[in-house]
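Form 7-S
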Amino acid sequence: MCDFSRRLLKKSHHGTGREIPKNRLGFFVMIIKLLIEGGNMTPGPALSQKLGPMGMNVNQVIQKVNEATKNFKGLKVPVELDVDASTKDFEVSVFSPPVSELIKKELGIEKGSGLQKKAQAANASIEQIISVAKTKLPNLLCKNIKTAVKTVIGSCVSLGVLVESKPASEVEQEIDEGKYDKEIKEEKTETPEEKKKELDEYFSKIKAEQDIVIKKEEQEKEAEEEKKKK
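Output:
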């Protein structure tokens, strides 16, 4: 797998990571890492704890970060502030959202499944997976689009997302066998309407079945709790 941000990384004397910048006098600049909702950063205790001790204008930081991340509305976005402690000046560096966030946006879901073995969160087409892989590819340490697609598939496993109406782990194996080489090579990102309809119908059926199972388990658990109280 290669789900690591490229981020213009360099080797630093502290290990692997972005080279620590310096100001014009040669002093190191402090790097503050944040994960915020694109275009919707708001004041809060956590932010104040990070910026307050440095005497920075929190509202100014929020304004600049929101402006820099406005194109990622609705997504969690990694942001770094390069702060010159001597002048309070800072620069905003915005990085690509995590693969999981891009998948959720592509599929129109708010969250993945917390019960991957029992419940699925969505049913993606291989075209949708390729679309996410193309978006994330510049920020992955991947040599080609096929490897990037496998990285996205790996995140689908964690999120409980089906791919082509099958478990994502099964599709990952099929990719190794070359089943989707044509779609990947042509970088197809548009799902045919007929195929989309079939995927939606299959997922509706699966969801109805899994909802019944989950509800039954909840009822059995409640009944067990009632027995313990007696």
